[in-house]
Write a structure and sequence with these properties.
Number of strands: 11
Structural class: mainly beta
Shape: globular
Order of helices and strands: EEEEEEHEEEEHE
Radius of gyration: 16 Å
CATH class: Alpha Beta
CATH superfamily: Mog1/PsbP, alpha/beta/alpha sandwich
Helix content: 10-25%
CATH topology: Protein Transport Mog1p, Chain A
Number of domains: 1
Strand order of the largest sheet: 4-5-6-10-9-8-7
CATH architecture: 3-Layer(aba) Sandwich
Largest sheet: 7 strands, antiparallel
């Protein structure tokens, strides 16, 4: 059976189509500017020097190719051997140019675009919070894709001329199981100083 991966980036009009691909079509990335080293505590640190960030992800998840979307700089999915599970929980990062937008404006633009282009998606929360001393905008949405009820949360971090959008997606019925993993991944996100 094929498993579905849905990445739902919310910024800019070009990014509002859910992407589905099978588990077998995904390939690991092997670029020189990217480093993954297993560590204890169940998480693997990942550094992307070119894009300027680091993050940690669960050891039993895997990095997949991001060539589908040029602004997508990182995707990691659960590597679940259960062939009856039709969905792979995942986390993706987009690096988007910022032209001086505030977190509040970014959230508002994304919610408006979703209402316009994907009215079947339901915005369940929109908030500005702080993570590790950084202001973060978050939008959570619920929707059905290929018969699967999903929940996705995008966290927007702004630094100078760059916006990083970290999007986590899981089946609604499993969200409480995956929330601690997603929180740990998002909290591990750091900018690299160049």
């Amino acid at each position: 059976m094929k498993r579905t991966i849905v990445n739902l980036p919310f910024f800019a009009l070009l990014l509002f189509i859910a992407t589905s691909c099978s588990n077998s079509a995904s390939q690991e990335t092997t670029e020189e500017n990217e480093k993954s080293t297993p560590v204890e505590n169940g998480f693997t640190p990942y550094t992307d020097n070119e894009s300027g960030f680091s993050i940690s992800y669960p050891n039993d998840w895997r990095i997949v190719d991001t060539l589908v979307q040029p602004m997508m700089v990182f995707v990691v999915i659960e590597d679940n051997p259960d062939t009856t599970d039709m969905f792979s929980e995942n986390l993706s990062i987009l690096k988007i140019p910022n032209r001086g937008e505030t977190i509040d404006a970014i959230l508002e633009q994304n919610v408006n675009a979703v209402h316009q282009y994907r009215p079947e998606y339901k915005v369940s929360s929109k908030k500005i919070t702080t993570k590790k001393g950084l202001e973060v905008g978050q939008v959570t949405m619920n929707f059905e894709e290929l018969g699967i009820q999903l929940e996705t949360t995008s966290s927007f971090f702004v630094r100078d001329t760059v916006i990083f959008s970290i999007t986590q997606t899981s089946e609604e019925k499993n969200k409480s199981e995956y929330l601690p993993l997603f929180d740990q991944m998002v909290h591990s996100f750091e900018w690299l100083d160049h």
